[in-house]
Amino acid sequence: MLRVVLIYEQRPRIAKETSKLKILFILLNALALALAAACSGSVGPQTAKAPAVRTDRGNEIVNEYLRREAAPFRKDRTRITVRSEDGSVEVYELDVWRRQTEDQTDTMSVIVKPTEDAGTATLSVQVKDKPTVNITYSQALDEFRESDTSKMFFGGLTAQELLGEWGKYSFTYLGDREFEGKVAHEVEGKLKDGQTSVIASNKVLFDVENFLVRELRLFDNTGKELRVYTQKETRVVDGRTYISKTDVVNHVYKSNITIEVLGREYPSTLDDALFSRERLRRSVRK
Fold first, then answer.
1. Is the distance from CB of 39 to CB of 251 less than 8 angstroms?
2. Global pTM?
3. Could you tell me whether strands 121-127 and 73-83 are parallel, antiparallel, or unpaired per DSSP bridges?
4. Is 285 exposed, middle or buried (0-12, 13-18, 19+ CB in 10 A)?
5. Could you tell me if 65 and 211 are in contact, meaning their C-beta atoms sit under 8 angstroms apart?
6. Coil, strand or helix at 83
7. 11: buried, middle or exposed (CB in 10 Å: 19+, 13-18, 0-12)?
8. C-alpha to C-alpha distance for 128 and 254, rounded to whole angstroms
9. Is the dihedral of CA 184, 185, 190, 195 positive or negative?
10. Residue 80 pLDDT more than 70?
């Protein structure tokens, strides 16, 4: 009975925390976007006769993108602007730290703006061949919570899209296409047997020179287009080119989202404590 009373008394606070967590899940690691891990309209006319469809070539292209995008340590300051159908605009900024090995990627994301949401944090753990786990901390209940990346949250994006779970899909090379005046490799990804996702398939255009994602289109299991990511700007830091601005059209929620990487660093190392549950707890209590 005491437990029930405590939960009831804290309900407004818990509801507020839940709202913050929903915000953070959409703000996860913008640009792995994948976007990264990433508009509407066609991909443009075919510029040359496409070679025979090749699954191995499709996977090779994606692997080359991932190889170039990888870094042992990375820090981003990211801004996400959500424009809803009703005309409302919401803007968030967050710091994102990432450490990466061949078998595991850990990402710590902390909201810094707006002030009322500052300190809300999520730790995402991606282990090769295992489901990604997102970990948050509830101060009201003094407990950690774990979830997967399949849920759709505020703004209508999934954590999967921002983290870039490319390993869930098998990719087929469709040929080279012209897109906005430049040639791009087009590949189609289909969900592998045994994998689950609201995104059943995708089509991606990779720049033939730097292998960055030019356009990413996502589809459900009926073939309906859900969202379209389009690269708008790139920057170079430490000799590495990265996507600095991406526009997202969300057909499901009828919203438009802009993801900007305002700054990127490739430090030589990051403190292990950054990627701990205690760091989640301390961030919320600041």
1. no
2. 0.78
3. unpaired
4. exposed
5. yes
6. strand
7. exposed
8. 34
9. negative
10. yes
At 162 the pLDDT is 54
Summarize the confidence of residues 253-259 as an average pLDDT.
92
**How large a percentage of the chain has pLDDT more than 70?**
74
In angstroms, how far apart are the furthest CA atoms of the chain?
Answer: 72
Cβ neighbours for 87, distance < 8 A, ≥ 6 positions apart = none
Please provide the size of the chain in residues.
286
**Residue 182 reports pLDDT greater than 60:** yes
The residues near 71 (Cβ < 8 Å, ≥ 6 apart) are: 98, 100, 240, 266
Q: What are phi and psi of 260, to 5 degrees?
A: -125, 130
Return the amino acid letter for 239.
G
- Measured between alpha carbons, how far apart are the two ends of the chain, in Å? 31
Domain span holding position 63: 2-38+44-285
- The tokens describing 146, both together, are 């774990």
Task: For residue 140, report the phi and psi dihedrals to the nearest 5 degrees.
Answer: -60, -40
Q: Which amino acid, 105? A: T
Which CATH number covers residue 109? 2.50.20.10
Average pLDDT, the chain: 80
**Is the preceding omega at residue 267 within 30 degrees of 0, hence cis?**
no
| pLDDT confidence of residue 42 | 32
Residue 162 sits at φ, ψ, to 5 deg, of -80, -25
Overall number of domains in the chain: 1
pLDDT digit string, tens, across residues 124-172: 898 988 888 888 888 777 889 887 655 544 455 555 555 557 888 999 9
3-state secondary structure at position 271: coil
